[in-house]
Design a protein that fits this description.
The structure is a homotetramer.
Chain A: H1 3-13, E1 22-23, H2 28-31, E2 39-44, E3 49-53, E4 59-60, H3 65-77, H4 96-102, H5 113-126, H6 130-142, H7 150-158, H8 161-172, H9 180-191, E5 194-195, H10 197-203, H11 223-236, H12 242-248, E6 253-255, E7 260-265, E8 269-274, E9 277-278, H13 285-298
Antiparallel strand pairs in A: 1-9, 2-3, 2-8, 4-5, 6-7, 7-8
Chain lengths: ~300, ~300, ~300, ~300
């Protein structure tokens, strides 16, 4: 089946799930999002595109932004980045501070909050203006200007006590070089980027094309770096259910509490699904099911 | 390149690594193994085989046995198994007991020791003679009689204080139904199974053939169960370096401190490499490199 | 007021509390004890005695036995004992295994279970028959034969999974020299000693008399050792409410889940109160109140 | 022996220890203090005073200030204070964040940093100007104006990453009502109070006089509150060696990394010793020995 018709079929199959679950409520700007929205877009390496539903509606990408900040940090630092950040799964969130203490302030991977904050600290050290650099990078990837949702960024800052605790804790181990408020300002802004499903799928084309943006041929990362991000997404990309995602979807995925999930079929296509109502694990409920159905029907699961 | 010649090329490429690292020394029976041995075998779904080095030398499969006990438990209990055992990565081993306490005695996954002990407990409850059942299952999978190395099993028992602590701890939460010594006796025996690379690769053919043993057409597990094991191997199969293995090899792997690593290329082939000298992460040093080279050259990495 | 009349007054004052709370129920032998019993006895250094209620009824002393095993270990090993066991409070029980892991199997103090098990291990190493030695010591202290309640000891063993986990865990760090089952057998027996309030108060006279049994002049410990035990009782003697006991009672205390509490007024008297129904902290509810009233009225609190 | 001659004797006995150990070095303002200084002062309830050495030299009281902030919080909130802060020993510092997580942001006691920060938060909520209120309270207790060492306070803030982590962490649990920077500003200032031994001993007279300042008859706390502080000092006042202090000194003590130790003999006298060089536990090395010798010779140990 061609992908457009497959997406339409998946859309129908998940229609009853859309709106089930709970929209993220820890900040007002996310809490008032309409949970019944759904969008799904994909972009193949060869340029073929398909989409259904609200695939052009911009939403808060939240933790999916960790793909971009990590990519930018790899551009700037290369393998040196890993002196500050590990690349292994982290166990349940309860243990995050225990693990940070045991490992002397070095986070387990760049997709847990501690790791993404450590990445943001690296960006602050290596960019003139880290927020500007992230925005430019994402805009370049998408091919059109992308901006921060400043209301969301301010909301994140106002409810960021645990992230602040994590950042100060890493700093107490000498693993954060810049002032915590500067680093968190970058982190909270990157979480507040607004993109549509179509834009996300397009922006992440480099992950499935050996690091090269398939839209314009620009090398974003080298092959090994692109592969590194895919493997990190599969093992660490979906909070405390990475193992479950590996099984039911079988693709590298990175989710966000805004309800988006970015998935990759290495060497073939990048996909983004979005539906704001979340299941118990903090991942989009309808979005997860849509990816599962798509991967099964398209036969693209890695297992 | 055909696989036989590819294995031979890989063998040459890793020749200088063979014997580097340290043979596991926590029990005498393993400590005196010659670290300079190396074997590598693969078996395709279509029956094609290839092997190099000491691929017919039996060695202690140790934690690779967790594949077999998990498969047997899934045969007997199906999805009920998961009420006692999780399916997510576990973070670093330091936290194993902290996590067990936080999660009330339910281990994170069946490939950490706590999880494999919980699986052994399920087998004791559902088999007349769990040790006999495991041995029969493995013998059936291989197609020839396999036996326990009783000296290794006795050695494991004599040095099993931490496993005993883990087992009693789970039992204190009501998550182990059988006496600890009975459960550990099963667990220590399964670790003491002796198979060659060729036998391991052959025995695990069902993992890459939708659960069906490609040698004789017998359904060992259903498709979903086989897929489950593959995804668990990728996310949790290699101690605290699952993320690194996902990146450098890009295949589901399950390693053992005896120096063996079982890998799968879903739908295509099962492989087993063995070299007893271990790297810092507790995985076979030459074996890991051999798998990396093979996967890259054969183009079978999932990323 | 003379002590006999003071005890009678206290008995009246707590009469409505007696039987409130819950009898320990984790083993059948304790669960069927009548919770409405109450006894209180004291013995001054000068030989003066007083008692009320069921002060001659033998009951299971449980964790109060840790005073005796610690004293015996100090007799046998002196300061060497502390190479295996710390002398500091331990925080909440939740953290016991975390702390044991962090401190490589050395328990924080001899009054938490891990510490008492480590003491028992030392006794096994230094006695021909540790159970016999403990029984003889207590019998000598009391001046009449004391025996184990074998039913209670068997019950403890049957429900001792967490203690077994703790013991194996210490052994995995090389901090337990003897087989776990041998050590736990000693530990479970010492918990199953049966003494009356009058016997306990009398047996612990050496703690308030510079280490010398005031009944017969025999030196049980030296002055510093006796002082050590008193200070440990004050800081670590009552599970997770040592701070609260220091405030409300202001005396060194060691409690047991059998409902007994042994208290000392250094240089003056030893006391034992008993009432089996426990408050939320696992200490005798009426017994705690009785000690508080007594210490306040007699003016013996250390604060 | 009268106290003045006893202090002189103690001073001679510890003379060789003075200067041994290491001056606290985590902030420059403390690192450059001359470690060879020593002062010791006491004040009896009846007004009798004695002192030796540099008893009139002001030094940074650091954690001894927790006595004052706790007293002020008890004045303002009474027992309500304890809804936010526990009263039990905390185990080793390694576990501080683990314990905070397990207990949902409620610190174990007011003498660990987390607890003192929670006290500071309460003061911010209940004072117009908490820093001013603390300074006034201490000035009133001493009977002369006391002030903050602003250089020390600034230094603390510049090196306060772990305290900031702790504060943000409590705030993430809703256990801190005020902005972290406001709360820490109070906390860092209270640590930067400068008093001499004579002033400290005098200021803490209320702790040994039923809550009433013996110098002027003003009730600072009620009897139970004063007793509460004494019992907290004995069980939690000296970092991770409270058990050891209870044994070797046998008095309620509160130490600071500036090298001061405040001790109380309930109902009789308050004492302050100071010598900046610290032993391995972070307590004044010569000061600890001086208190031990004094308590033994004066016969005032509670054990």
């Amino acid at each position: 089946m061609e992908y457009q018709r497959l997406l339409e079929q998946v859309h129908r199959q998940v229609s009853e799930l859309i709106g089930q679950g709970e929209v993220a409520s820890y900040i007002p700007a996310l809490a008032r999002v309409d949970g019944s929205q759904f969008g799904f877009a994909l972009r193949c390496v060869d340029g073929q595109e398909a989409s259904v539903g609200s695939a052009d509606t911009a939403f808060s990408i939240q933790s999916m932004s960790k793909i971009f900040s990590l990519s930018l940090a790899l551009q700037l630092l290369g393998e040196d980045l890993w002196s500050r950040i590990g690349r292994e799964p982290s166990g349940d969130p309860f243990n995050s501070l225990v693990q940070l203490e045991h490992e002397h302030g070095r986070p387990r991977n760049p997709f847990i909050n501690a790791g993404a904050i450590a990445v943001a600290d690296r960006l602050v050290s290596h960019c003139v203006d880290a927020k500007q650099s992230i925005r430019e990078m994402v805009s370049d990837l998408v091919g059109e200007p992308i901006d921060y949702d400043l209301e969301v960024a301010a909301s994140e800052a106002a409810h960021g006590a645990r992230n602040a605790a994590t950042a100060h804790f890493m700093r107490s181990f000498g693993k954060l070089d810049n002032p915590v408020d500067v680093v968190l300002d970058v982190y909270f802004h990157q979480c507040a980027l607004s993109l549509s499903c179509r834009q996300m799928a397009s922006a992440c084309g480099f992950l499935v094309n050996g690091g090269v943006n398939p839209r314009n041929g620009v090398e974003v990362l080298n092959k090994r770096q692109a592969r590194r991000i895919n493997s990190l997404m599969l093992t660490c990309g979906t909070y405390d259910v990475a193992g479950e995602f590996a099984f039911i979807i079988g693709l590298p995925c990175k989710s966000g509490v805004g309800g988006g999930i970015l998935a990759t079929v290495p060497h073939r296509m990048s996909l983004c699904v979005w539906s704001p109502a979340l299941g118990p694990s903090g991942n989009s409920l309808a979005g997860t099911k849509a990816l599962e159905l798509f991967a099964a029907e398209a036969g693209v699961s890695v297992f």
